[in-house]
Write a structure and sequence with these properties.
Blueprint: E1 2-7, E2 10-12, E3 18-26, H1 28-32, E4 37-42, E5 49-54, E6 60-62, E7 70-75, E8 80-85, E9 94-101, E10 106-108, E11 112-116
Parallel strand pairs: 2-11
Antiparallel strand pairs: 1-3, 3-8, 4-5, 4-9, 5-6, 7-8, 9-10, 9-11
C-alpha cells in the first residue's frame, strides 16, 4: 500500500503564497506504479474539485480558477508532488488533499487546511 502525507497548509493573507508538499511512502512496487499525482480541494458546503494534476512525465493540467496562480510539480526520485500557490484569494480557502493514481489503486492523503483571510 501507499501512504500520502501532506504538509505546508496554513493561514495566509490575500495575495500571499503557500507551498504544499505531498510525499508518498510504502510499498515500492505500488509507488512505482503511480502515474498521475494531483491536488484536490474541498471548501465548506461545496463538492471536492480538482485543482491540478501532473503525470509522471511532467504534463500538468489545472482548474481554470487557478491557472496562472498555482504551479504543480513533482520529484519522482523523492516520490513527492508540490503545489506552489501564489496570489491567493479568499475563495481558495479549503482543505487541500493529495491524490495518487496507479492502474489498480487511487490513494488519498489526509488533507491540509489552507485559509486565506486578512
Amino acid at each position: 500500500q501507499v501512504q500520502l502525507v501532506e504538509s505546508g497548509g496554513g493561514l495566509v493573507q490575500p495575495g500571499g503564497s503557500l507551498r504544499l508538499s505531498c510525499a508518498a511512502s510504502g510499498n515500492i512496487f505500488s509507488i512505482n506504479a503511480i502515474n498521475a499525482m494531483g491536488w484536490y480541494r474541498q471548501a465548506p458546503g461545496k463538492q471536492r474539485e480538482l485543482v491540478a494534476v501532473i503525470s509522471r512525465g511532467g504534463s500538468a493540467t489545472y482548474a481554470d480558477s487557478v491557472k496562472g496562480r498555482f504551479t504543480i510539480s513533482r520529484d519522482n526520485a523523492k516520490n513527492t508532488v508540490f503545489l506552489q500557490m501564489s496570489s491567493l484569494k479568499p475563495e481558495d480557502t479549503a482543505v487541500y488533499s493529495c491524490n495518487a493514481e496507479s492502474p489498480w489503486n487511487n490513494y488519498w492523503g489526509q488533507g491540509t487546511q489552507v485559509t486565506v483571510s486578512s
